[in-house]
Amino acid sequence: MSLMGGAGYVIARKASEIGDRAQVSATLVGVPATAAVTSLPKLATTVAAVRLGALQLAVGGNTFDALFLIASDVAYREGSLYHAVLPQNYLWIVSALLMTGILIGGLILRQRRGPGRIGGESMLLLLIYAGSVAVQVLVAG
């Protein structure tokens, strides 16, 4: 556990350093880049679970990530983490809410096939995330 915490601290510090050197906002580095780096182990676990047919593990395991916000709120020393959110983070909050809604819709309205042999909701998630990154780059640039 302390190894994971230490790795998270190093990633956060390096992301901040990269943002400073590239002269871009912390949001541009922090959200897409840090999220991708820290999510890769979860991606490997989810893909392995799907290949083994443990679909409940793949879906259910990802819902646990929302609880990390509670731990982050507890660790934040200057009050509520939710009140410290900057306006440049609103894009990512709205994107996450929209993607969550699409995922719920995908669980309710099952689809056998979609574009590119993936579900239509997966395609929508990719488009929303790519669009959010593009908007963030345009706004920051």
UniProtKB/TrEMBL annotation:
Domain Sodium/calcium exchanger membrane region per the UniProt entry, residue ranges: 9-137
Major localization class: membrane
Top-level division of the source organism's lineage: Bacteria
Compartment list: Membrane
Gene3D superfamilies: NCX, central ion-binding region
Keywords of the record: Membrane, Transmembrane, Transmembrane helix
InterPro entries attached to this UniProt entry: NaCa_Exmemb, NCX_ion-bd_dom_sf
Membrane-spanning intervals of the chain: 90-110, 122-140
One protein family per Pfam: Na_Ca_ex
Membrane topology (UniProt): Multi-pass membrane protein
Protein's UniProt name: Sodium/calcium exchanger membrane region domain-containing protein
